[in-house]
Amino acid sequence: MHETVRGWIHEARSIAVLTGAGMSAESGVPTFRAAQTGLWSQFNPQDLATEAAFRAHPQRVWDWYAHRREMIAAVQPNPGHKALASFAERHPGRLTLITHNVDGLHQRAGQTDALALHGNIAEDRWLDALRSCCAENIEAGHPPRCSVCGNLRRPAVVWFGESLPADALEAAENASRQCELMLVVGTSGEVYPAAGLAFTAHQSGGRVVVINPEHTPLDAVAELCLHEPAAVCLPALLA
Ligand code: BJW
Predict the structure, then answer these.
(1) Are 152 and 126 in contact (CB under 8 A)?
(2) Domain span at 56
(3) For the chain, what is the mean pLDDT?
(4) What is the whole-number distance in angstroms between the Cα of residue 219 and the centre of ligand 1?
(5) Is the minimum distance from the CB of 190 to ligand 1 under 6 angstroms?
(6) Which of 107, 143, 158, 183 has the CB geometry, 3.0–4.6 Å to 118, for a possible disulfide?
(7) Chain segment 89-103, per-residue pLDDT in tens
(8) Are 209 and 19 in contact (CB under 8 A)?
(9) 19 and 91 fall within a common domain
(10) 69: CATH
(11) Residue whose C-alpha is closest to residue 144's, from 55, 62, 40
């Protein structure tokens, strides 16, 4: 099956790659829906990643992100991230990388033009974006706040019920419509609108290949499913 997919990669003039949390599993970042460990095992990540949760329990949600930031800062891009970055460098303009991931590992592997649909966990922004708070008034805390009006800092990620960055989403939709081949790597295919990009690629005539050790709803539009870990499969396909 690798030979077949390698042939499709060789032929395709435009390739879109949609990655999710499984892409970073071999770097040591737990997937979003995997059981949480230690202190965080009692919480469902889906219940923490909302604005309502942050407003109700700012310290709890802030500390969860602080814990994940620390963990992510300590890991490295894996051979899968590196294989994608190296392919993009060797074939300028042929590959569009679209990611659910907020961990910045594609960017650290060299793919600075990755379309990060759910933001970046390393960055913060004001919770109430309409208030004009100054950076010099940031008072340390869990979370930090504006010493003048109390506005809170929050992680610059996209929570459930929030809009995705419009430019990145539009570019991802265009790439999905135009690609001849889409590789869907390490995502459960449950979170929209990102998951819908695989259907867009399929409906627009692109071939879809899913790389995931488990079955997902996106298998329905895949011409082939490779049930392998991303960090092993991608280097084998893209070398
Ligand atoms: C391996 C592996 C290895 C393991 N190798 N693979 C249409 C239909 C239904 C619902 C909706 C819809 N449109 C919108 C919605 C609502 C909602 C949604 O999708 N809900 C569903 C859960 C039902 N979407 C939204 O709210 C989005 N916003 C939106 O639509 O705005 C418009 C709107 C506004 C107002 C009202 C309504 C609509 C925003 C979604 C934001 C998602 N944010 C998060 C958190 C980011 C911050 C953080 O990290 O804390 O993004 S949620 C979380 O899920 C995170 C991830 O990026 C995302 C996707 O998860 P992913 O990557 O698939 O990870 P996992 O863990 O689920 O799966 C890992 C996979 O890897 C598994 O399959 C493993 O098998 C595999 N794997 N090891 C390869 N080694």
Answers:
(1) yes
(2) 36-74+123-157
(3) 95
(4) 16
(5) yes
(6) 158
(7) 999 999 999 999 999
(8) no
(9) yes
(10) 3.30.1600.10
(11) 62
